[in-house]
Design a protein that fits this description.
about 50% helix, four-stranded parallel β-sheet
Amino acid sequence: MKYRGEETFGHAQEPAIGVLVANLGTPDAPTAPALRRYLKEFLWDPRVIELPRWKWWLVLHLFVLTRRPRQSAKLYRKIWTAEGGPLLLGTERLATLLEQWLRPRLDSPLHVAVGMRYGRPSLGSALDALTARGCRHILLLPLYPQYSATSTASTFDVVAGELTRRRWVPELRTVNGYHDDPAYVAALAASIREVWDRDGEPERLLLSFHGIPLSYFLAGDPYYCQCQKTGRLVAEALGLAEGRYQVTFQSLFGKEVWLQPYTDATVRALGAQGVGSLDVACPGFAVDCLETLEEIDGLNRDIFAASGGGRFRYLPCLNERPDHVAALGELALRNLQGWSVAKAATAARSGERRRRAEAQAARYPLPLTPP
């Protein structure tokens, strides 16, 4: 194997800190070909689908990829903007704000890059961008508050795999999750309370999380428990009695049993019960995306109305809220402990490294070509 080097490295280069903000990903365009590429990468991930590879290859290529891309493209077209997909745009804006929040609070140079687990920009390209700017310490910050092997661990797999092909591996730290982080919970509660104070409280609140197969939970994935804890902490912050809110799970795929109760079934049942007002929030998503804008605010809104329910209100993700940026910033700072050094000391060391390197080169010049 030929390991990748860094041709742009210089001894006077000031070491920097990098934060790699990771998210799930999005297709390049709301078209069937783009969705086919995206879904092929996404659904071939063994962390997402744990079936034997030969069996799943047949199902994926003979059935899923022949039908689902066209269906998904129609859904993406409903939420696509002139600038692109909302998940990528929202993640990039959030990363920019996070960088602006962190830089004044650190003594060392800091750079933030965005990488997607599936699609573009890739996690590898984000690592390239950070190492090109001299980042010798990199914090991997997946925007998944609740840990799951299907999301957080899958992201780590790719980053670790990228580093195995590099000659100079940076020091790496990973945020595994922040499901019970007080600042994150406070931001969620504040975002909900602001709507309620302005427009009134609903009869019921659903906190809908992305689902995973039940078998993954039974095999030891902590995701379900962390979702439940997030829901409980948010409800406590809002002062809700147990009967006023419920944690549910959405975005089912395939015929396997997933975490329950299902969001769509719960919405249908509440509508049939004649619930006059229902709010739905999605605490597991950092920024709005297909699953929130189309599945919740579109499909589930229609389900509630068709079942006899009253007012349906989707409460947006935290997105670019200042308290969200601050929560992620404080989370990053805690994980950057010991990496930030005084700029003056860093600059002095950089100059000394350059002088020593030049002196060494003068005494023992290295051949540019092998003998």
